[in-house]
Amino acid sequence: MTYRLDASHATYDEVRITNTGTVPLPTGTTITWVVQNRSTSAATLTFISGGLNGVSASVSSIGIAAGGTATITFTLTAPLAPGAALYWRYSITGWNYASRVTVNGCPGATACLSSNGYTPGTACPTAGGGGARLARPTSFPDPSEVPPKTAPLTP
């Protein structure tokens, strides 16, 4: 498996997984994605319209507390043949997160992908990552109001 995070778009990021093996992954294979919000305020992660290719997601939108994590499960909707790819596209408030992607049932098929604005990386969610417990419910941003990333700085 190869894993790629494309953070070059102003209004969404994309995780793409390519099957580099010699056998197809069967329909129904699950993928676990743990996302940690590295922002100092609550975030909302939302899959963009038409942003799932080859998978279905357990949620369409999820709130993540500042410093907290969320777990999303994807399910393959068709076999993933050798050389084929699947992807998901999403927006997240603040555009600053670390994540771990695991293709379940494939030993060692795990990767860490992170982003801060337009800069992708390979940081994993930190241990704990549950975020502080609050005495009152956290208010999460409206997913329709996630602003685009600011323009990347040019040296």
Characterization of the model:
The protein has 155 residues and is mainly beta. Helices cover 0% and strands 46% of the residues. The protein has strands spanning 2-6, 13-18, 30-37, 43-53, 55-57, 61-64, 69-76, 85-92, 96-103, 110-116, 119-121. The strands form 2 sheets. It has a 6-stranded antiparallel β-sheet, with no helix packed on it. It is globular and about 40 Å long. Residues 126-155 are annotated as: Disordered. One of its GO terms (biological process) is carbohydrate metabolic process. Residues 144-155 have a biased composition (Pro residues).
* Regions with little confidence, pLDDT below 50 for 5+ residues: 129-138
Count of beta strands: 11
Oligomeric state of the chains? single chain
Give the DSSP E fraction (strand runs of 2 or more residues). Answer: over 45%
Note the run of SSEs as H and E.
Answer: EEEEEEEEEEE
Number of domains as seen in the coordinates: 1
Spatial strand arrangement across the major sheet: 5-7-3-9-10-11
Arithmetic mean pLDDT: 87
Broad structural category: mainly beta
Radius of gyration: 15 Å
The top level CATH class name: Mainly Beta
| Coarse morphology | globular
Assign the CATH architecture: Sandwich
Q: Helical element count?
A: 0
The CATH topology name reads Immunoglobulin-like
Secondary structure layout plus pairing:
Layout: E1 2-6, E2 13-18, E3 30-37, E4 43-53, E5 55-57, E6 61-64, E7 69-76, E8 85-92, E9 96-103, E10 110-116, E11 119-121
Antiparallel strand pairs: 1-2, 2-8, 3-7, 3-9, 4-6, 4-8, 5-7, 9-10, 10-11
